[in-house]
Amino acid sequence: MGESRGGGCCPPMDLMRSETMQLVQLIVPMESAHLTVSYLGDLGLVQFKDLNSEKSPFQRTYAAQIKRCGEMARKIRFFKDQMSKAGVLPKESLEKESDIDLDDVEVKLGELEAELVEINANNDKLQRSYNELMEYKLVLQKAGEFFSSAHRSATAQQREIESEDSQQAGDDLLESPLLQEEKSIDSSKQVKLGFLTGLVPREKSMVFERILFRATRGNIFIRQTVIEEPVIDPSSGEKAEKNVFVVFYSGERAKSKILKICEAFGANRYPFSEDLGKQAQMITEVSGRISELKTTIDAGLGHRDILLQTIGDKFELWNHKVRKEKAIYHTLNMLSLDVTKKCLVAEGWSPVFASNEIQDALQRAAVDSNSQVGSIFQVLRTKESPPTYFRTNKFTSAIQEIVDAYGVAKYQEANPGVFTIVTFPFLFAVMFGDWGHGICILLATMYLILREKKLSSQKLGDIMEMAFGGRYVILMMSLFSIYTGLIYNEFFSIPYPLFAPSAYDCRDASCSEATTIGLIKVRDTYPFGLDPVWHGTRSELPFLNSLKMKMSILLGVSQMNLGIIMSYFNARFFKSSVNIWFQFIPQMIFLNSLFGYLSVLIIIKWCTGSQADLYHVMIYMFLSPTDELGENQLFPHQKTVQLVLLFLALVSVPCMLLPKPFILKKQHEARHQGQSYAPLDETDESLHVETTGGSHGHEEFEFSEIFVHQLIHTIEFVLGAVSNTASYLRLWALSLAHSELSSVFYEKVLLLAWGYNNVLILILGIMVFIFATVGVLLVMETLSAFLHALRLHWVEFQNKFYEGDGYKFAPFTFIFTANEDE
């Protein structure tokens, strides 16, 4: 489904029948093939057929060019990802696409990618070194605090011992502050302790400590210190919470185990000196190196941002150029080489009105490419079913999408979208009727319509995107809801005498809560819609039930009759007299003999004010058609009319079932009698196209299959006439539900809160009323009524005439190339 085009190139838009299509053949010289396909893509009115379907993608003529474009597209995606991470937005380029060459783009993209990859690699190395130095600095600080604390503790213990025993020397204690040794022990037998420092992830710290203890059988001493702020891990580049650890051990065997465990737990180890002087020197050196790395990293990032800004200036231009070239080569791969290998042959579908535009594009391509031979354009004859093409605008496109969701129309069959533009929002409004709620939806829709230019260029969420796409459908739904709301006389369930005062008054003050027996007519009938006096009375519900139920049946029978009438226009258009005489006429007779008659009875009862029971009339029309009607008689000779209608309904069923299969069989036999000896009056080209086009002229006629299909179709229509009519009662049910829900929210929330004479309760009641109205009535009820209206159109209306077994016209175009993801 295409968008309608401005200017004078296209005839007036016609939604009833799809555009007349033609199968065209283009013979294009090799030197102008690329430019020809490019111009046809700009035109967007040719759907190419794949003439190389038996070949794999790697065996086709332009496989190397597609691979080349794919590589450039990969580089562009890489640039897009890098710009997104850096917060650089692409800009619209003032340079024209025709001014740049694909070879220059390829070279430029390669150079920029190599430079950007090198910058990223250097930055990653510097950033890893920077993160390692930051961790190293934390280890020096935290482990240094631990050693300083241990040294102070040892000094205090030494002084305490000296005060108690002045004969002991304190020097030995200072040499081993962490492990107290007796002075009498031989120095040659003292154990030299080693230690390792580093960082371990906090979530693994307890397990890390437990594994170390078990692996060394408790022959270690470990201390851990929590780092308050998360640190960036050099390996992953992500922030992580870590602990600084110091492990004391004895022996190389224990050291080997500890190193393996550190590696398994991802614990980063860093060298550390016991000497306090060396510790201070190392901290100074590390801080200096961190400062230098920070300056270097900032300079690298600045250079990278400048490079990305340069890429962003021409990103859109390059992106569109590469995508366009890739689409062109994909299309060229669908074309076949002729015998001389100097021309490409293309076949495709196009609208008849586009012939002149296509020929102009071919001529321009031949001139611009300096080709000595022009392209050949010719129309081919075929029996293949053409694609379906409706030209729509932004108003009709959403409705056409609703119809196409059921099935794309067969080529040139009647399009339900013409009527759906009006009937869909109207049936929605019948179920949703409240002019207060309609105004709320109208205001929301007007926001989408007034800002459609800005919103159309933005990326919206799934639900918002769907609402924005159907904004004109929702506009129609809101307008019809206001109209039906005025008919129902409901504004958030409150009646207003907008057009005149009520025609009725109470006889006395006690009749306000009574039935309408207490009312007397004092004025002319209320001019438009429902008299507001009905609201709030005891007879309101029975009266509205009767009114809306009968109205639903009238609307349903009318729409089903419209569907059957459309089947007549389809049969007439396709010159099928069988479908007119043995499908349209029996269906009209059957439906209107029963439910058309019921609709007439409803109108007569409304006009005469009769008390006849229509349920009784319709039931006994079948059970006892010869009985007298008595008080249920609405007009003279009603019994005779009912007998005639019942007879016509019964006769119409075999008329739908039996004649059509036999007539089709007879037509098939007459059409193929002596076909083997028919003269060959077609040209070679048309014969070739018919053979390749999938003609079904020689397929066998299965009478049993046709008969069973007609039997199913007849049974479906007869039973569907009853079930579909009953299905339209959902109009009554949902309208009643919407009205009652709205009344409950008004009376049980708003009025109840008002009655407390408390400001806080009133504010709370208003908030609950607003949220309930928006959440339930304006969102859930809207969606519910939308889905039910959708079902009534798909099942009850479209199945009367709409086959929907066609396929969309999908022309080769560049319109959406820039917005589609690879």
From TrEMBL:
Principal subcellular localization: membrane
The species this protein belongs to is: Camelina sativa (False flax)
Could you tell me the gene encoding this protein?
A: LOC104720818
Q: What InterPro entries does this protein's entry cite?
A: V-ATPase_116kDa_su, V-type_ATPase_116kDa_su_euka
Keywords, alphabetical: Coiled coil, Hydrogen ion transport, Ion transport, Membrane, Transmembrane, Transmembrane helix, Transport
Q: What membrane topology is given? A: Multi-pass membrane protein
Q: What is this protein called?
A: V-type proton ATPase subunit a
- Please verify whether the record's keywords include Lyase: no
What subcellular locations does the record give?
A: Membrane
Q: The organism sits in which domain of life?
A: Eukaryota
Bilayer-crossing regions: 426-450, 471-488, 551-569, 581-604, 640-658, 759-780
The UniProt similarity line reads:
Belongs to the V-ATPase 116 kDa subunit family.
One Pfam family named in its UniProt record = V_ATPase_I
Coiled-coil region list: 102-136
Outline what the protein does.
Essential component of the vacuolar proton pump (V-ATPase), a multimeric enzyme that catalyzes the translocation of protons across the membranes. Required for assembly and activity of the V-ATPase.
